[in-house]
Automatic annotation (TrEMBL):
The keyword Transferase appears for this protein: yes
Domain N-acetyltransferase: 30-173
Organism field: Persicimonas caeni
NCBIfam families xrefs: rimI
Gene behind this protein: rimI
Keywords carried by this UniProt record: Transferase
InterPro entries: AcTrfase_RimI/Ard1, Acyl_CoA_acyltransferase, GNAT_dom, MshD_Acetyltransferase
Protein name: Ribosomal-protein-alanine N-acetyltransferase
CDD domains: NAT_SF (cd04301)
Record's signal peptide: none
Length: 173
């Protein structure tokens, strides 16, 4: 991950729960902040572009209510450009969902936020970050591999909508 470390965030306290917006990249003032109910509309608009079977509002609301679940919104200026949902369970960080507005993809946004997540995970002495990804989702697999994740297993027919297998990917910290 070392090669990806970027912005100087000196003075910003690292925490899973973002009590205030955090700058993750200086060049375009990319920030992440804790999402709230008021952000659902923007999140759903991005979610609907992102997955074959998008999560509905109730799924996001359920995640927001869980102590171990985190929902971060990515913003440039006042515009929502993506989001990340992850769980923290003991020493594991598990990514459930990440998506970037199609108009803003291939600009390093997901990379910048995931690097930030890993920095916080390291600060909290987490052991690894894991996730499942659709076997045909080349963009996401390439993203994770570029960050040092490796495929460590497969769950057959994990996705009921398409019958696709899931690759289990992991990044050891
Ligand atoms: C996957 C996703 C989150 C990536 O977001 P992003 O901000 O565009 O990603 P980045 O710009 O940080 O890309 C980093 C690297 O990932 C790889 N990558 C990203 N998108 C790619 C694509 N469409 N094709 C091939 N490689 C891709 C590249 O290696 C890229 O580096 P490069 O642009 O220098 O070549 C975005 O494509 C998305 O929202 N997809 C739909 C939702 C989804 O599939 N989420 C993942 C579920 S597990």
């Amino acid at each position: 991950m070392e090669a990806y470390r970027g912005a100087d965030r000196a003075g910003q306290r690292m925490s899973w729960r973002l009590d205030e917006p955090r700058l993750v990249r200086e060049g375009d003032a990319l920030r992440v902040r804790e999402a709230g109910a008021d952000d659902l509309e923007a999140i759903l608009a991005i979610e609907e572009t992102a997955h074959p079977t998008p999560w509905i509002a109730e799924v996001f609301e359920r995640e927001m209510a869980l102590d171990w679940s985190y929902l971060w919104l990515f913003e440039r200026g006042n515009k929502a450009v993506g989001f990340l949902v992850f769980w923290v369970i003991h020493d594991e960080v598990h990514i459930l969902n990440v998506a970037v507005d199609p108009a803003c993809r291939r600009q390093g946004i997901a990379t910048a936020v995931l690097v930030y997540l890993v920095e916080i995970a390291e600060e909290h002495a987490s052991s690894f970050v894991t996730l499942e990804v659709r076997e045909h989702n080349q963009a996401a697999i390439a993203l994770y591999e570029s960050l040092g994740f490796e495929i460590i297993g497969k769950r057959e027919q994990y996705y009921a909508d398409t019958g696709e297998d899931a690759f289990i990917m992991s990044c050891i910290l």
